[in-house]
Design a protein that fits this description.
12 helices, about 40% helix, 7-stranded mixed β-sheet, binds pyridoxal-5'-phosphate, alpha/beta
Amino acid sequence: MTKKIYLDNAATTQLSPEVFNDMMPYLSTQFGNPSSVHAFGREARLAVERSRKTVAGLLGVRPSTITFTGSGTEANNMAILSAARTGSIKHIITSSVEHHAVLHPVERTGLPFSVLTSDHNGRPSIDQLELHLMKIKGSCFVSLMAANNETGALTDINYAAKICQKHEAIYHTDAVQYIGHYPMDLGAMPVHFASASGHKFHGPKGTGILYTKEGTPLKALFEGGGQEKGIRSGTENVAGIVGFARALEIATRDYERNRQHILNLRTQLKTTIKEVCPNAVINEDLREESLYSVLSVSFPVKDSGEDLVLRLDSNGIAVSGGSACTVGAVSHVMRAIGKGQGYETVRFSFSVFNTPVEIKNVISILKNIMQKEV
Ligand code: PLP
């Protein structure tokens, strides 16, 4: 069997060797607990605070606004549930295409909520946001993602944040698929909360951050040792934190070069996929920029046959299904954008470690699948 091809980088990415090297000391000799007063502890504390400063600097905010979390999921839950616990929020507005790490905690708050619909590419309707904010009495919490994990649609979060500011609503953005892919100057935006996840940009799994604008009220979900200024008790994942910061540093340093490389791969696949399957639908709006690392393609099942993701896997190609339609479980995002029955959506997602030769091989395997030769 030929070498496996990994095109599922929106699910997770390979740890960068540079990040791995920087994490190693904190997984071996420098194992102190940052809360300990002795030299081991002080060394660990220094690493955590140095990392916080790095992350904050890269995002254009002050270090005190960055809370390290155990994942993007945790950061989303923390923003929504901790803000709701303050008792000052009366209504939540979110969208139909958010990740479950947003939709489920929104439901969990028990507060009334409204769900914005999206366009056919998975971009939440910002016009609806303004209409809702005009109608709802009392303070609102809005959660709209920066980049959609299934289609790669980008939300105009600057615009959304400004509308929220106008209506004095708290604004949270799930930026898990955005931070580490684009530079982000959070300090220049009227955003109250932003979530990110390290493993989406070649950092370690089980690491995330929640940015919280100074002065935004929060009530901690976990009680304990009072780490992270009492917002997130629990001994810090020192190696993970160091890895998160280093990965963000590299992503920002190499942004232009990586973006161009990945965009070329995406274009290569996008332009040839229509030759392989003329009825395939690319889920993007050509008038708007999409996340350059994601290409979402809906294949008509009558052309591709069923279980395309599994058949690609058995040919050594790892991708995700935007929908798992064979068992009838079409994803909530695909349903929201109307690519449900009759289509199997495949999310190809790229990283800097992919090559043009790999894309050529993917095309040739797809061709064989469409011609029912494999
Ligand atoms: N939000 C979005 C948009 C995601 O794509 C993901 C992961 O796929 C998450 C949140 C959850 O992040 P994590 O895997 O760090 O929990």
